[in-house]
Amino acid sequence: MGEQTQTQNQAQTQTQTPTQTQAQTQPHHDSAASATVTGTTTAPTTMEITNGSSLTSSPPAKIPFRPRKIRKLSPDPKSSQIVVAETQATPKPLATIKSTKSKASHHQRAVPAAPRIVARSLSCDGEVEIALRHLRSADPLIAPLIDLHQAPTFDTFQTPFLALTRSILYQQLAYKAGTSIYTRFIALCGGEAGVLPETVLALTPQQLRQIGVSGRKASYLHDLARKYQNGILSDSAIVNMDDKSLFTMLTMVNGIGSWSVHMFMIFSLHRPDVLPINDLNVRKGVQLLYSLEELPRPSQMDQLCEKWRPYRSVASWYMWRLAEAKGAPSSAAAVAAGASLPQHQQEEQQQHHQQTQQPQLLDPINSILNLGACAWGQ
């Protein structure tokens, strides 16, 4: 009996020794803080001793997940020990992670991304037909307009410098007056082939005033020519610029605003995805197409016409046709687009534009629309 009692005492001493040793490594007053920082507790070993029975212990607990440790110096100046902080994030089981990745990859394979349409210049063979098919599919409301009107054509081309010069000369003029001044200007330069930056810079304001060009327009022409001469602009650079860069560069020229740039991009460069958000008749056409109570603001146009991408230039052409069919006055853009219409329709639109020109000049918004009137009309 004495030997059994001695054996039990030795077992208890061996069990308590690690606990006592751990307690002695830190001062007594830091034990609670240490337990809080480490975030772990030591489960006591339960021992059951019965008369005549052998020593037994509870089954071992499952080994918990041991999180990543972040070691940092203790802020306590009294202690030089390193405190070990353990994160308590519980990771997802490996099987769940694999299942989630499998489902995600399966979903990506099941729903392929829609192919992106890359639009070409509208003067390329068959590009207008592709644009019309896209618009029919993207916006069924525009399909009746496509059936009603003859498809636009974009087969005229002038050098960018000549087209921009012509745009400036036609600003705020009726078609007949603009054509008369432009004809005299061409003669002064020795023909359209002679409309070059150095030729324009050689013309004095007095010479330009003699053919009907105002002093302000003369300064616009010279500013454009100087930017060409200084290398800021060039025909090749303009042709190769993306739409955003081109808009930024051309609006730096005195006398060329956003509306003029949009008209130049559509009717001279034949860019497929230009939306003239400041054009009154395009906005009016959008209002009629979607039965809006109010005229959409320029800031709303991008969102309303998003579905037309990447052929917003062609859709805008049909907005001009829709606005005119409902009795809206022809803007300069409508006359400029007349190059795509039969000759008798061009004459009717030009006559209507001349009749409504003076009332439009009283309206600041319509005055903007008359910039570069008919500049691309022939």
Low-confidence stretches: 15-57, 76-89, 104-108, 332-378
Principal-axis shape equals globular
Task: Give the strand tally.
Answer: 4
**Per DSSP, what share of the residues sits in E-state strands of 2 or more residues?**
under 5%
Number of helical stretches of at least 4 residues:
19
Q: Give the H and E element order.
A: HHEEEEHHHHHHHHHHHHHHHHH
Alpha-carbon Rg, integer: 41 Å
> Per CATH, what is the topology of the domain at 131-369?
Endonuclease III, domain 1
Average of per-residue pLDDT values: 73
Give the neighbour order of strands across the main sheet.
1-2
Can you tell me the CATH architecture of the domain at 131-369? Orthogonal Bundle
Q: CATH homologous superfamily of the domain at 131-369 - what is it?
A: Hypothetical protein, domain 2
Q: Characterize the biggest β-sheet.
A: 2 strands, antiparallel
Distance between the termini: 124 Å
Share of helix, binned = 40-55%
Highest CATH level, the class of the domain at 131-369: Mainly Alpha
SS class: mainly alpha
